[in-house]
Amino acid sequence: MFMYIIKRLFYMALAFLLVSIVTFGLMKAAPGTFLINTQMLGGVQAATDLNIPPQLMNSFIKEFHLNSPWYVQYWFYLKGFVTLHFGYSIEYPSLPTMSLIKRTFPLTLGLAFSATVVGTIVSIVLGVIAAVKEHTWVDSTTMFIATLGTAIPSYVTAIVLMLVFGVWWRILPILGFQGIQHYILPVAALVIPVVGSMSRYMRNSLIESLHSDYIVSVYAKGGGMRQAVFGHALRNSLLPLITVVGPQLAGLLMGTVIIENLFGLPGMGQVFANAAQQKDYPLIMVSTLLYAVVIMVMNLLVDLTYGGLDPRIRKIGYVQGR
Amino acid sequence: MAPLLEISNLSVRFHSDKAEVFAVNGLDLSLDTGKAIAIVGESGSGKSTVMMAVMRLLQSNASITGQVKLDGTDVLQLPEKAMRRLRGKEMAMVFQNAGSSMNPTKTIGDQMIEPMLFHHMASARDARQVAVKLLHQVGIPDPEERLNNYPFEFSGGQLQRVMIAMALIADPKLLIADEPTTALDVTVQAEVLILLKKLQRERGMGLVFVTHDLAVAAQVADDIYVMYGGFVMERIAASELTTHLVHPYLRGLVQSIPKIDGPRTELPYIPGQPISITGGLPDGCVFASRCDKRFVKCHERPRHISISQQHSVSCWLAEGGVEQA
Amino acid sequence: MNRAMSLNSVIGNREQLIGARASSWRRMWSRLTKNRKALIGAIMVFLIVFLAVFANWISPYAYQQADFTSLNQGPSLSHILGTDSLGRDLFTRINYGLRSVCIVGFGAEFVELTVGVMVGALAAYKGGWVDNVLMRLVDAVASFPSFLISMILVTMMGRILPVMLLAVAATSWVGMARVVRSQVLRVRQTEYIQAARSMGASSLTIILRYILPNAMGPIVVAVSFGIPANMMAEAGLSLVGLGINPPTPDLGVMISEGQQSIMSYPWQLIGPVGVFIIALLGFTFLGDGLRDMFDTRSRR
Amino acid sequence: MAKGMTIAKSALAALTLTGTLSAFAVTASAAPSSSSGSFSMYIIGDKRGFSPDIYTWSLYADSLGIFEGLVHNSDKGVVPGIATSWSTSKNGKVWTFHLRHNAKFSNGDAVTAQDFVFGFQQAFNPNTAVKDGGGMDATAFLPVVNGVEVAAGTKSPSTLGVKAVNNYTFQIMLTRKDPTLIQDLTLPAMGWAVPLDPKVVNSMSATDWTTPSKIVSDGPYMVSSFTPNTSATLVPNPYYFNKVKLKKITLNYTASSTGLVDFENGALDMAIINPSDIKAVDSNPTLKSELHFFPTAAQYTLDVAPSQNNALLNPLVRKALMMSINRDLISKDVLQGTGTPAYDYMTPTWLDPWIKKNAIPYDPTEAKALLAQAGYPGGKGFPTLSINVGVGSTPDLVAEAIQQMWQQNLGITVKYNGMPASQFYSTYNNPITSGVAFRQNASNVVYPQLELPTSVVAFLNTGVGQDWTAPYLPMNIYTQWQKVIANKSMPPKLQQEQAANILIHNLPKSILQWIRLGVKAYNTNNTALMKQFFYMQEEQVFDLPIYTPLQPVLIRSNVHGYKANSFLLTTPPVWFNDITVS
Fold this sequence. Notes:
B: alpha/beta, 31% helix
């Protein structure tokens, strides 16, 4: 298990380097980027498109070492990120990026986290119901609704939810963030696609477990449906479910970008969308890397949880066929 | 005294989208307490289906007719709840593939004590004591520690022993072993067989042993039922197997057992492929298409006739008297 | 007996092996037509693609053609889905908007497929360190914040169709690479490939005649799920203000505009959203159906 | 080219005589009494905090009652603020303000003349106010002694021409006579300088201006909570010298796309709604009575874009194009009433209604004739005409409507090029490579009553003047001009001079003649000259004015004293403390 963690951490570091190189490369290649080192003009000319005032530009030259060769720039970009010295950005010249992130990222993470928790619980419940009632109308109805949930992206769901709950019934707020009730619709919009795919996964996985030989053993020992499902099959089908939580979380986190914009939630997604539209390169660089790190850490946690829960990985480090 | 298990006219059919499968067709069988019988047949002959029908563990697309009496009670008529009370306690089962029949993510201790817990026979702690004793009996060293191990930490032979112990934990009257040794090495096979036989004798259980291996069957069982295409071809006492057999199919099976001390000739085998029991059965004898003794009469289905108290057969040849092997 | 049976099983497998290719497509077709969900999905997809491809012929108006005498009209005979705030026919604009969405959906999938097959097959074939390096790369790209990368690319390179297509495909090829790799590995290990190899078939023959057709199923399924995912990403970009430059109609932009008119002119939202949902559902149904068809383990 | 900034700045710059605004005050009706004295409204906002010295959208809120300067705007026009009276020296260069003795900051400290000195120094000091380059052009409008030098960093802030004669007497020394000084002192970005508590501000970092607990202000309201880009809450300054009328003001910064819903469910008492929501509002009598259309100071104009092809340099062509745009239809139908036709760049129609009577009418037939006269009968031979527009996430309906009108009325090929705002501005001054083009100019109008360019150079430097006239230059000269404009390493003053020089020496006579006429009209304030100036524009059609937005605003019927500030984009009230809620 220890070696497993070390190995995973090593791969994570590699992935992080790749993301940072790609982000840096993209920013350097972008037309009008301030990362271009124009020796003659001290880097200022390169940024004319960005409408950066000279004083600000000078501070960026210093902060990002724009008068040095690219590898030095890259090194300081990486170092700055790792040591949490995020500097300032074009759009928020008087607000350190770090405190901007501190202010906005919790909301985004909160959205993604609550959506994951709610989504997982609902998925498990629906998946179990459908699997236990396999091949009945309960199963087919649940799964049809789940299919709709998978097929329709969260932002379309969000628009429909806004329309129904905010515009027609007027029972929930649909704009801004002033309290927990502002969380309800965004989380619901994010949860529905998650439930769509995860409950299907849960059902299929549970059905597969329920059809395996050891379940026959359970019945042969005098167990009933309850013992089969809750004593054996559920636990075994939750394990593979954990492995899909990781990608789901990543998808959710990306979904928050649009959802925050739709609901006017002051989260990191809105900041990023704004930064992208305004070509706020310093902010784009930091936040892309930040999102990537969060995704990687989540995947790592998911894998470790899986490893910790599956005795085969915990004890011998692998499962055959996986 | 009434037999422990008495099956009469048992038929099992599976319904699928495409066709009906005639898995078992009018089977009769009886087993006395303390005795062992073996059901022998190729894969697809319906031998395992019979026992799954007895346990009522078949999938929902199976329809079962006939009678299965355990201690005089027809288990096919019992409600599911009452049936559950029998499983594991009155009759227990050892499966073919111990590796997949054990939950890979639970310790064997947790799995072994389940029959006792399901039937409220003991607390978990007491049940573990019983499990330790049983593991010891089936020859697992350090049983107390091994209780906390997971199935993947056992070898195939050990796991099969654990399975046997698990089946015995609630002290059943009837033990059904469904090809318990097929997946094992030959040497391990013998050990497990001996163990099984020993335990059956000691406990005075009824044992139904399902296998495709006639030689194994002869070692373990008192009576042997040979199945083909969902029918019992011949029922014969193990002691008479080599001397009194009637059915050409059984003869073919016996001949294809290699004899270590015999001359090295080419091994005879039964030509053709096992009959398909999907869709429908032939009007005549199900074995006719592969039978070298086939004659006109074989276009009709043979009756199952008794030759002696422990010997019966379904073959037109038997109508004309017993033909010596 | 044992030998007889094992011989039988080999013969059986050979028959299976020979028959596999000849009838697999026909069998699949008949399975497809029997699978109601897949059929409905296929019909919906056909309809959507038809509208998008033949937008010029089907649409009763030109997409930019304003009619200042019929602004914000509800659905009627002359404008079956109503008009927008310049009196332009919504049905027409939706058709053209679908075209944009489909170009990105299919185009990006094509790019993903090309890159995915190359990387996946290479990894599976070469094995060893090549496999290791490629798969680490795939893992790394999979942990990219994909939507953000798309947004950055669109911001940098402009809001035009080819850019959006590449931006969407930029990170999503990894899924395809994984599917291809695992399929090639799976098929390579199967008995009939080993049998074919033992019979002396050349490796090219093996790839072309056995591996590819047999690895096809999951790849086709992945494609049919990939297309709607790309469409979602495209429309998502529109919703954060990075849609295709006007005046090219785009379904995502129409949705975000329609959202604003919902109180007064609901059809301006319902039309585009409805068609978008139909498109996504069509692909999902089709994908589900195809998966059922190809998945031998699935129980019905 | 710092176009984005220019536009944003002129949005604030365009303030004028408050007297004309009273027409738009919401008159109180007998409304049901509301239980609370709180008011929530939509206002444009950002994330950069409430520093009164940095140019941000939050400055709107600052100027409406978080800070209070010497004087401030109100529903009665400019009224005394912290200063109760003032006097000027004979030469008009020294202003002496007498401050009230009971004014206090929200931390309880008294507001003194020294605080004004400190505040003015902060506003001019490039190391504090304009540290991030987003500072205000205070220097451009307040001719304070040494102001230019301090802002340029060549002189120390202590040399600035402001003085505390004693605790409650404050003096401003000017370099020249400035009759609009009092007016300018009310305006953020034009002369906005407020008292600051040195003790507090010196210990603040730039980021503390986003932390309400650290902000100390002297207006009737103070910031009690702030979520960047989302909302802020204002509560009464407990030490304010006068009665503060509301318990709480909530400022909602979030985009107004759901304004109607928020108004209906009570989240907002003042909301700007979508044009497309007007029909829904009209169908509800209560809502309809709460809907107001406030004029704004912005204007949507199409300017000639620089091009090798000089087809657009022919006034006949421009007139034909102008005549085939149905401005009434655009305002009433396409914009659903949220616009009013614009006829002149320099004067809003609502300020001078006579303009409308004399403006170029919509006349497609005449337009066709003019185009034929210009050498393009039936549109034949006319180059492809593009309309270049910088758009946000949604297309520009007006540009698309004009595209259709031109194409349908004149038979010429017209392309609508919507592009992201950043792309639009970064390519703004690049000559068009094929065909000809108009480019959208959505900036605020320059009003003669306020900014009076006293010379041709000043006229050309009115922010929009340059971009607007430069395309009339010959192409080779235009490239020269463009180089000057793009050169960021040149001092701004020199840059402006050089650019203006190029224009003055190379522009067509007709334009220069027209500009001279305008300057003369401003300087003399002569109505006849003003009209002549207007008629000349109508004859030459130097640009195509399309419409001025009318902001559709819902105000709860129990809100009184809301007078819209039409010179700020989101038409907030002119002074928060004028508002009461019954």
